């Protein structure tokens, strides 16, 4: 930073660049508009496809809005009130979906933060076949949710599935209802998700690990630090920005879970594994109530924003 | 590496965001009020079409073997009609119904849409499809040509919106090899409760759980739907104002099914499709499944699956059924030529519904059903008599979500999360709220 200022200072005495200071709003770095022009392509996309839909969503949420019906009365905050009024038709479904999403997020996030870190530490060592294993652990992530959903639904079937058959073969109970009863359904959903997406987080960790300077490890080794101390005092601090990124994106991704429960458990038993995003899709596209769906989305988005802010706060605090 | 991955993810996220936003804005801009009805006046109700060449888009959800047969019929129609070209697009039914409204209001919808009977009222009330009274007049169709429920099911607010193409009831599939192994006559599948339970007892003796009860809509929920009517119950009252699927007969029917699991005639926690897969694999003897599975069992004769009418387990015969209907979609700029062309197509295909029967569906037209050619189509014609007592879902807008509540309450009972009575009571309480919501929304 200091270097830049000095350079700038030195140039004050130098003759002005050709055509420089004459025009208003033009500095030696170019027009004031320049940064905005650089921003413009993204900003335009963001405004059109980010901000505008969000505002439109807020507008929808205060109406009873059906895409086809001509009558779209303004209902004020009724759509929001319905979410908190135990007498409304959607109250039960909404809160059971919130509960389902919360359970899934609470159990999947810690696993998706820790297991990939362990994987990355292992894959960062040099051993024969390292590239092969890196590919192997990343491979499931390449598959679409439809593929893994159907695959695991059949593997986990209580009566016909391979998982129960293998468990039976080694003398364990062979009638576990993996996809039709809780808590087993949660074990399945979290397990499948960890298997499916760990590779992605591991790759990010791996990149972070490779950014940590080897000199730091060398120096700590010279000072007599053992493996745990090196991990605790070199690896973890070095990974902090990466950890923040992984934690934040994993919470958001887990809270947005939809395909896995839609395909593997189909919401069973009853509606216990129906998640918030599924609920919103049904409300808006199946039951044609875009107003309620928008209200749900906004409440959900606000909740996630608060969680992310806490998350950032926590990490910044640690940094100070 | 990290750079690549992150930008990839961001790109993906952006792509998804763009797609969603675009479809939302499109759907949002193209409000339903912009759609115009060009319906009844156009053409002569489908007798013929002599105008300039029209291209018609048709959407359906025939993803199984029936889809190929449908496409062949369309090819034949196109070659016989020089000035009408029909192009077919197929989606999964679930996607289909959520895609259609958005596509129509953004002007990208089809001209002709195939729809289930219980969806007609919803889409009619929401102004997606247009009246077809003149088509039924031109085709000289009346109630006598169809099963009465199917015919009246196409009417909403005294106007006709759907021309029935076919009907698809639940059928009774049984594994002959498994029956034989248990000492049962594979050519005499049970037809009533006594025979049915006696057969299950014999099967159990030879170590077969003979009647797998699925907790899911396909097919356990539809089985319960059938039995509820067999026991003399109904899902809703006559005006579809109140849900009635917690009546005594309904609870008894549900209890009977759940007891199948408790008595060991069915395993617990049957997964989606596991009942049918187990039937084909010889682990299950009896399964009530849709008529559309006839195509599937025909592919695998070695499995020795027989087809019969669903046995009478309650006090009367009854079976779940639904019907495919043709509808004409309202367009923003109405093109009368297209509408008359579409009517010609519907007329033509309705007349060729015998060929459609080969796709594993019972033709809607009585005359075709009674023809010798239809009776010669194995298995499909076996199930045709069921239509005399089939229980079709009522035609009320917004009923889809209420039916799902019904199926979910059975799910809770079949998975032993609640007693049948409790599950159905809870379901009815929720269904009544949904019905009330729908009345407010659709104003009836």
TrEMBL record, chain A:
It is found in: Cell membrane. Keywords: Cell membrane, Membrane, Transmembrane, Transmembrane helix, Transport. It comes from the Bacteria. It holds the Pfam family BPD_transp_1. This is Carbohydrate ABC transporter membrane protein 1, CUT1 family (TC 3.A.1.1.-). GO terms for cellular component: plasma membrane. GO terms for biological process: transmembrane transport. Residues 98-311 form the ABC transmembrane type-1 domain. Its main location: membrane. The keyword Cell membrane applies. The chain crosses the membrane at residues 36-62, 102-123, 135-155, 184-207, 242-264, 293-315. It is a multi-pass membrane protein. Gene3D superfamilies: MetI-like. Belongs to the binding-protein-dependent transport system permease family. InterPro entries: ABC_transporter_permease (IPR051393), MetI-like (IPR000515), MetI-like_sf (IPR035906).
TrEMBL record, chain B:
SUPFAM superfamilies: Periplasmic binding protein-like II. It holds the Pfam family SBP_bac_1. InterPro entries: SBP (IPR006059), TAT_signal (IPR006311). GO terms for molecular function: maltose binding. Transmembrane segments: none annotated. PROSITE patterns: TAT (PS51318). GO terms for cellular component: ATP-binding cassette (ABC) transporter complex, substrate-binding subunit-containing. Keywords: Signal, Transport. GO terms for biological process: maltodextrin transmembrane transport; maltose transport. Belongs to the bacterial solute-binding protein 1 family. This is Carbohydrate ABC transporter substrate-binding protein, CUT1 family (TC 3.A.1.1.-). It comes from Micromonospora mirobrigensis.
């Amino acid at each position: 930073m200091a270097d830049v200022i000095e350079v700038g200072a030195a140039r004050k005495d130098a003759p002005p660049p050709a055509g420089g200071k004459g025009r208003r709003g033009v500095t030696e770095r170019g027009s004031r508009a320049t940064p905005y022009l650089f921003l413009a392509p993204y900003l335009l996309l963001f405004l059109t496809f980010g901000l505008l839909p969000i505002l439109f969503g807020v507008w929808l949420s205060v109406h009873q809005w059906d895409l086809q019906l001509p009558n779209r009365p303004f209902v004020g905050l009724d759509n929001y009130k319905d979410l908190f009024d135990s007498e409304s038709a959607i109250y039960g479904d909404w809160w059971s979906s919130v509960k389902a999403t919360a359970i899934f997020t609470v159990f999947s996030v810690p696993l998706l933060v820790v297991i990939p870190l362990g994987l990355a530490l292992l894959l960062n060592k040099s051993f024969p076949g390292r590239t092969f294993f890196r590919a192997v652990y990343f491979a499931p992530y390449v598959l679409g949710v439809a593929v893994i959903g159907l695959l695991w639904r059949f593997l986990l079937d209580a009566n016909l599935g391979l998982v129960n058959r293998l468990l039976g073969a080694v003398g364990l109970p062979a009638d576990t209802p993996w996809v039709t009863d809780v808590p087993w359904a949660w074990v399945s959903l979290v397990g499948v998700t960890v298997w499916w997406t760990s590779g992605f987080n591991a790759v990010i960790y791996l990149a972070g690990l490779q950014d940590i300077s080897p000199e730091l490890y060398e120096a700590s080794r010279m000072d007599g630090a053992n493996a745990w101390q090196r991990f605790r005092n070199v690896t973890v601090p070095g990974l902090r920005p990466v950890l923040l990124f992984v934690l934040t994106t994993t919470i958001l991704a887990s809270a947005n879970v939809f395909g896995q429960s839609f395909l593997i458990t189909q919401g069973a038993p009853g509606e216990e594994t129906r998640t918030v995003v599924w609920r919103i899709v049904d409300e808006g596209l199946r039951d044609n109530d875009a107003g309620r769906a928008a209200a749900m989305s906004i409440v959900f988005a606000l909740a996630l924003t608060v969680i992310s802010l806490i998350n950032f706060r926590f990490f910044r605090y640690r940094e100070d | 590496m990290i750079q690549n991955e992150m930008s990839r993810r961001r790109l993906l996220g952006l792509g998804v965001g763009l797609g969603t936003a675009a479809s939302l804005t499109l759907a949002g801009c193209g409000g339903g009020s912009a759609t115009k009805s060009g319906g009844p006046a156009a053409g002569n109700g489908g007798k013929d079409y002599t105008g300039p060449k029209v291209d018609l888009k048709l959407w359906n959800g025939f993803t199984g073997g029936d889809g190929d047969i449908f496409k062949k019929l369309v090819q034949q129609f196109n070659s016989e009609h020089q000035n009408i070209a029909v192009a077919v697009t197929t989606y999964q039914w679930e996607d289909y119904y959520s895609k259609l409204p958005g596509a129509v209001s953004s002007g990208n919808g089809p001209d002709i849409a195939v729809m289930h009977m219980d969806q007609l009222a919803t889409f009619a009330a929401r102004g997606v499809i247009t009246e077809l009274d003149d088509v039924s007049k031109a085709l000289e169709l009346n109630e006598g040509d169809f099963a009465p429920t199917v015919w009246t099911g196409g009417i909403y607010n005294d106007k006709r919106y759907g021309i029935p193409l076919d009907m698809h009831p639940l059928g009774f599939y049984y594994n002959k090899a498994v029956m034989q192994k248990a000492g049962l006559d594979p050519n005499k599948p049970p037809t009533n409760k006594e025979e049915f339970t006696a057969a299950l007892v014999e099967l159990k003796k030879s170590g077969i759980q003979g009647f797998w009860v699925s907790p899911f809509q396909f097919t356990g929920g539809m089985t319960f739907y059938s039995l509820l009517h067999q026991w003399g119950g109904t899902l809703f009252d006559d005006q579809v104002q109140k849900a009635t699927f917690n009546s005594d007969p309904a609870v008894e029917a549900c209890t009977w099914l759940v007891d199948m699991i408790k008595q060991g005639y069915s395993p617990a926690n049957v997964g989606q499709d596991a009942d049918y897969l187990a039937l084909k694999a010889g682990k299950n003897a009896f399964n009530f499944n849709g008529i559309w599975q006839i195509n599937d069992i025909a592919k695998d004769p070695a499995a020795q699956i027989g087809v019969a009418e669903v046995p009478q387990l309650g006090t009367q015969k009854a079976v779940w059924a639904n019907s495919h209907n043709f509808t004409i979609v309202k367009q923003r700029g109405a093109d009368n030529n297209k509408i008359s062309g579409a009517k010609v197509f519907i007329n033509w295909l309705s007349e060729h519904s015998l060929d459609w029967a080969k796709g594993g569906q019972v033709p809607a037209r009585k005359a075709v059903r009674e023809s010798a050619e239809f009776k010669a189509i194995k298995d499909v014609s076996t199930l045709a008599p069921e239509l005399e007592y089939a229980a079709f879902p009522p035609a009320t807008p917004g009923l889809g979500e209420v039916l799902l509540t019904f199926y979910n309450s059975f799910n809770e009972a079949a998975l032993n999360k609640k007693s049948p009575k409790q599950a159905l009571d809870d379901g009815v309480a929720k269904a009544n709220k949904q019905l009330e919501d729908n009345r407010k929304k659709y104003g009836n």
